[in-house]
Specification:
By secondary structure, the protein is mainly α. It is built from four helices and two strands. It has a two-stranded antiparallel ribbon with strand order 1-2. The N and C termini lie far apart (about 70 Å).
Length: about 150
């Protein structure tokens, strides 16, 4: 559908799957790891909603860590230099491993069940694996050291 605005024709975008607007895709939305990180964010929120009273500190940490994965991915994708991209992707990986540790804590304290733990841990392992590969793809290949002694 098109709309006329001040003598110009502008295409109206429609909502695509996941709430994104068709034709309006940012760099981070093209990353498979971003989609998996968003899925984990929703999973983490469901865990947080079920935490018992008195565990707000764990809820806050899991909220921050799971959100940080998504936000650092988006910010890294928006950077122009390889070094900047890599730094944000490595930071996202750190937040993912923090999220994994929080799942370990929740399991050990019997705040989540084994099946829920395995589901979340599998998602995080997948995210970390993807982030390692992504960060490595932005490493600058350093020249081999000169062994000639000159």
């Amino acid at each position: 559908m098109e709309t006329r605005i001040a003598g110009r024709t502008r295409s109206r975008t429609t909502r695509a799957a996941g709430g994104r607007r068709a034709g309006m895709v940012l760099d981070h939305e093209r990353l498979d790891v971003y989609a998996v990180a968003l899925e984990f964010l929703v999973f983490a929120n469901e865990v947080i909603e079920r935490l018992p009273r008195g565990r707000g500190h764990l809820a806050d940490q899991l909220t921050r860590a799971s959100t940080s994965i998504v936000l650092n991915l988006a910010e890294g994708a928006g950077k122009l230099s390889k070094a900047d991209k890599r730094r944000y992707y490595v930071t996202a990986r750190g937040s993912a491993t923090e999220s994994a540790a929080l799942l370990d804590v929740c399991l050990r304290l019997r705040l989540i069940g084994e099946a829920e733990y395995r589901t979340g841990k599998a998602m995080i392992v997948h995210v970390v694996s993807m982030l390692i590969k992504l960060a490595m793809s932005f490493e600058d290949p350093s020249p081999a050291p000169d062994k000639s002694g000159i």
